[in-house]
Every structure is written in C-alpha cells, then in structure tokens.
Amino acid sequence: MPRSKNDWNKKSSKPPLKGGGRAPMPPSSPFGGWQFKFSLGYIVVMILAVTLFNYFLFQADDTIIPYSAFKEKVRSGEIKRVDMDTNYYTGYTDLAKRNVTILPGQESTRPPVKTVPVFDPEFTALLDEKGVVYSATSREGNAVLSFVLNWILPLAFMVLIWRLVFKRLGNTNSNVLAFGQNKATIVAEGDVKTRFGDVAGVDEAKEELVEVVDFLKNPKKYTDIGGKIPKGVLLVGPPGTGKTLLARAVAGEAAVPFFRMSGADFVEMFVGVGAARVRDLFKQAREKAPCIVFIDELDAIGKSRITGPVGGNDEREQTLNQLLVEMDGFDATSGLIILAATNRPDVLDPALLRPGRFDRQVLVDRPDLVGREAILRIHAKTVKLDPSVDLAKVARGTPGFVGADLANIVNEAALLAVRGGRKKVLHGDFDAAIEKVVAGLEKKSRVMNVNERKTIAYHETGHALAAATTPGADPVRKISIVPRGFGALGYTLQLPIEDRYIVTEEELLGQIDVLLGGRAAEEVAFGRVSTGASNDLTRATDIARRMITDFGMSERFRNVALTKRGAGVLGGHSEAFMQREYSEETQRYVDDEIARIVAARYDRILELLAGKRELLDRIAARLLEKEVIEDGEFTAMIAGGAAEEPVAFSPVGKDDAEA
C-alpha cells in the first residue's frame, strides 16, 4: 500500500520532490543502517595499533647470544641439538622434543639459546664431531607476515592518506589523472536566467553581442550567405563594468550550455596541467556544441610571451600555446563561441588578438548619465523606495561610477534606511551612501585638539574658495571637517555639472589651483604649512607631469609626447621593462618644469586667498561651528547674503586633508 505524504514525513527526513517524486534514499551500507565516515581519527588509531603490534611481535629476545658464545657451547658439549633457519640458530640442552633417546646425565631444565647465523663452513663439521643433532626448519609463515607488515600495510596506509588529502581538498576523484581535468563551472541549457534586460549602461556592447546570440539561434541564416561568426569575442573594460554579466546574458539569451572558467584555474604547481585542462575544456565544449565557453580574467594565462631578456613562465606559456592551438582547431560553423574578459588588454599576447582567434573586441566602458540611471533602476527593483527619491539626480551625482559601484550604493542606502528604522529608502539615504563610498566611513569617535580642527577648517575652506573662484572648476557641494576613511581629516566634495571626456589646458591648471588651495589657506591664516596637504601635492604634481610628458603642454616640448614605452620587440609590451625614450637632460627639464608650474600656480592661489582673507575667516569660523556646510549655504556666503537652508546633493569627489 503506498505511503501518504504524512507517512513519508514520519519515516523519512527527506521531503517529496516537486512533481510527485521522492528524494533519493541514501545508498545501502554494508554495515546495515550505520554509515561509515572516514576521518583523520581512524588514521591515528591505525598508527597506534600497528606500533603496538610490531612492539609485541618483534620485541627483543633475551635468549639471543653472540655466535662465538653459541659455538663455544657446542664445543663444550652443553648444546645437544640445534635447529637452523634463515633467521636464527636455536640450541637445546636436551633431546626430548625430537623423540631422541636421552642418555643418563643428559637431562637439563635450562632454556634454549639462540644466535644469528654467520657464514661458517666449519660449523657443521663441529656439530658432527661433537655428535650434536641438527636439522633445518622452515619459517614461511613468518616470511609472509613480514612481507605483509613491511610492504602491504605501508602501501595501504599511503593510499588511505592520499584519498583523505584529496577529499579534504574537495576533489571527488582521487586519481592523479584528475589534475588534467578542467575546473569549469558548467551551466546546463536553460539554467542561465540572465537576459539582456538585466544588463544596462552598455548598450553598444549589447548590440555587438546580439549577432553572437542570433548565430547560435539561427546559424543557417549566416551560413547560407557564406558568412562566419567571430570565433572569439573579447570583452574589455574596467573592473565592475559588467563583463561577466554580459557573458551570462549571452548564454541566457541563446539558451545554450555555458562553460565558465577563470584564467587562474588553468595553471597549477604541476607542469603540463594547464595545457591538459585547456584540451579537456575544448573537448567537452565540442561534445556539447552549440555552447559558449567563457574565460574570465584572460590575462592570467594570456600575457605576452615577449617579456624581455629574462624570459617568462614556461608553464603559463605552454597553457597559452595550447589555447592558441585549440582556438585554431575548431570550425566557426560548429556553434562553439569563445567569450573572454579582461581589464588588461595591453598585456595580452598579440597572437591571441589576431583575426581568427579573438576576432572582435567589445569595449565595456563606464556608463554615462543615462546608463547610470538605467543601472540604478535595475538594482532598485527589489528595494522599497520613497516617492521622493529621484534616481536621475542620484545618477548625476555619480560620474565615473561603474555598475558594481552603483549596486553597492543602492545596497548601502537600503542598509542605512534599516539602521535609521525606516521602512522605505529616502533620497538622503542615497546621499549618505554615496558619501560613505566616496569619502569613507564617518569617524565620530575621533577627538582632535582645537588647533588641528582650526587648521583643517581653513584647509578645506581654501579648497572650496579656490574651486568657487576658478573658471571651469566643478561646483562645491559640501565642505566637512568630520574625519572619514583612512586619514581623511576633512573633505571638500565637488559635483560636475555634466560628464566630461576631454579637459583643456586651462582646466588642468585650474585643478592644480584647487588642490593647492588648502595649503595656501593655511599659510595665509597661520603663516605656516602642515602635512595635511600631502595627498593634494601628490595629485597636483601628477597633473603637472602628465601635462608635460603625455599631453605636450610645455614650452620647450610643445606637442611632443615624452611617455615611457616597453622594451620588448616585435610589438611586445611589458610594464616590468618600461624605459623612457629621452635623455637625462630632458628628464631634468621635466622636473624643473613641474616645479615651475606648481610654484606659479601656488603663488597665484596664495595671492587670491590673501585678497579674500575676510571671507576665508568667516567661512572657516562657520565650518568650525557647524562642522558641515552644504552648497546652498556656501553659495550664499560667497555672494555675501544670508545663509540658506542646505539642499540635497550627491557628492562625487573629495580633496583630503591627510594626517
């Protein structure tokens, strides 16, 4: 009689499966209902058992005497009978055990003695001369036991240790040949739920991949006209832009099996394993074609083989060579598509990027304003938002953010809402989340003395005034002297009005002015400078250097690039062998020009702030009082009017005052 659901629940802890089936029962065990589970404790017990067994079986024998003493006992007539085997000579003082007639006076109760045999041809002659009864005995049983203990048991012990180690490492197959099997995560057809609708902000990249999906769905449309789909598609872009998500969306749209593997999974400590895994991966992919093979972080195995005079890693190069061969070894009409992703296309081997292998390179760049808003809407679908939340305004406050950053901001805003005891996420939660991501966690417990707080207040006020009076500078949205993050004792947040892709020479000089404004304000107010401008000076120096070397904005080398190049040949490139292509005299000019530009801009901003000393003191005093000044109040103070109520903002950048 079949069991009902209630009967099943009473007799088994496993519930019925969907569709009326039942969960599989555990396999039968030779121990009945008890399941044996191997662990390290059994190994310890086994070692102790073998040690005790050998101790009692092979413990030292007190009856063993030297061979010379044994021979002397035979010569003196004390030993009447000798049993010989390969291990010992055993001498007896009586003949009873051999059913030999015992003559009067031969009885003895002394125990037998033993000695280790020595090659002595005269020993049997001595036994015959003294009338000693001797015979040879067999120890076959002990020899078998010795073979088992010395060979079979240690070998079995090593096999058990081998299996235990591989089990602990998570390898279900303890065979050594399993090293050559690839570690790809295989997702069956239809199991990939990601679609192109789940990807936003990279519309151009999606359009490039539509052909790949269409080919996997309708290959005849391309083969009839003689067209061939690209064998490989390389997704290139900064970290967090959604390269892996795009690859999963392609597999989900095409509804084909999806092989995912990281480049680092190919190479192991054993020579030849990487090449074997590449062969195994492509073998399985051909069996399941049409399918998609996705190799994440391709630069782990695809770095250029031209690395300079010292050569490279042979194992990694063998893996790359095998990958090149496999990509040449399949037909483009077979339905096998290779997708790969990297954020370091500059270090890839040229042979990997040539047509016929990775024919198409798709740029997955940082999203623009429209793309950021679309990404925010996707991640905010599962979050309860207050009607006052304007995601378009949040997107305007996050220039340069990638998809991973925006997803983190949405999650941080939700967590802040929960921390505040709210049921919905407010716009202020997004502002606080952006500020937390950009500037770091607020350190409310840090206590600073009065002089340090005053120095930081003037420092940040100097940044803000320099930004407000510099043409083309981003508007100031917030000034704070609340410590945040790692070493940031204060910060000035600026919000670009729109996304920018090129910068003029005047705007670069303006950025240097804003960075130097903090130190200039300290000198104007106190007649001295502090270490708080260390990060500002680093960034200002870097901008000045790039103006001269990269952008050709110097008087002597106008429109000349003085960049560093790789030392490789045949188009090779390696950052480990970067060399400058100009002389020491030119390098001296670059250093002098950097110092001249920074000094000139510092003198300019120093004169500017000195002329606005009264406004500098007033804003710094207000900052010391409130610790935070919003953009509305700051604008009113600049204009000379009354302070306005702070307005909501979306911070994007900061100028740190570091300890």
Question: Could you please describe the fold and organization of this structure?
Answer:
With 659 residues, the protein is an alpha/beta fold. It has 5 domains: 72 residues, Signal recognition particle alu RNA binding heterodimer, srp9/1, CATH 3.30.720; 33 residues; 183 residues, Rossmann fold, CATH 3.40.50; 71 residues, Helicase, Ruva Protein, domain 3; 190 residues, Methane Monooxygenase Hydroxylase, Chain G, domain 1 (Up-down Bundle). The strands form 4 sheets. It has a 6-stranded mixed sheet, with helices on both faces. It has a 4-stranded mixed sheet with strand order 3-2-1-4, covered by helices on one side. The protein has a 3-stranded antiparallel sheet with strand order 12-11-15. Helix 6 packs parallel to helix 8, helix 17 packs across helix 21 and helix 18 runs antiparallel to helix 19. The longest helix is centred in the first third of the chain and has 29 residues.
